[in-house]
Amino acid sequence: MSLTLDFIQDDWRVIDGRRAVRYTSVRNNGPLVDVIEDAHPRQLTRREQAVSGGVYTNGQLLWNIPALQMRIGPPKEGDVITDGDGQDWTVLSHAYSAERAWWDLTCINLAIAYDLRDAIDIQRAGLVYDAGGLAVKTFPPDAGSTLYTSLTCRVQEISREEKEERGLMGTSTAYRIYLGRQTPDVGTEDRVVWSRLVGTNRVTTYLERLKYTSPDSIAELPQLECELTL
Q1: CATH architecture type of domain 118-229
Q2: Can you tell me the distance from the alpha carbon of 200 to that of 17, in angstroms, rounded to the nearest whole number?
Q3: Spatial separation of the C-alpha atoms in residues 175 and 181, rounded to whole Å
């Protein structure tokens, strides 16, 4: 009986197409990240699509994850699997197979589902003390850290106005960024680095005063509102 049970629980070892992925357990106080060595992706069957009650969209996969490799705790909705191509797959639902000792995770690639074509970095400043001993907020590469690199998104300008700040007139441009994954740990003091090609020139824009909005549904896009003041 023990040999039979061990064979069933190790059944995932004989499945072709297994690959290593990065698994991010999304938490408000900061994500936990681990490597899953033997994740297996597959397309949803017609039956699984039908069970979704019409929720199924383009850009979904079912990922099989061995329970023994979920070392940071059981999966939950909103967690993210990042595959070897850098694609993020957000967990929509999960079910545990006791017979096979693995998790079935139905996931959506928001970048594919919503055709997101921009990319940003999100950075957090560190404190550097100047010669006079005063603390200066400093972003990478000199200090601080990069929370998210090449995060797939869509950047959209929503308003532009002239405004006075510190006695000087300038132009304030507000942006809304639709994100390809949840980033609940982003704070108002972080900044967005948006680098893109404009014609043949690479242009980099720094956006500040971030405000993160979590969607009502995991299958919808999280948003960042931010500003550029010149």
Answers
A1: Beta Barrel (2.40)
A2: 40
A3: 18
CA–CA separation, 185 vs 195, rounded Å?
A: 22
pTM: predicted TM-score of the whole model, two decimal places: 0.77
DSSP notation for 89-142: EEEEEEEEETTTTEEEEEEE-HHHHTT--EEEEEEE-EEEE-TTS-EEEE-TTT
Q: Which amino acid is at 102?
A: W
Maximal CA-CA distance, the chain = 80
What is the full per-residue pLDDT of the chain (230 aa) written as tens digits? 444 444 445 555 666 678 899 999 988 777 899 999 999 998 877 665 555 444 445 688 999 999 999 999 999 999 999 999 999 999 999 999 888 889 999 999 999 889 999 999 999 999 999 888 899 999 999 999 999 999 999 999 999 988 777 677 778 899 999 999 989 899 999 999 999 988 899 999 999 999 999 888 888 899 999 999 77
Q: What is the location of CATH 2.40.10.270 in the chain?
A: 2-111, 118-229
> 3-class secondary structure for 189-212?
CCEEEEEEEECCEEEEEEEEEEEE
Lookup: tokens for 157: 């300008």
**13-16, long-range: CB < 8 A, 24+ apart:** 13/38, 15/40, 15/64
- Domain 2-111 homologous superfamily, CATH: Bacteriophage SPP1 head-tail adaptor protein (2.40.10.270)
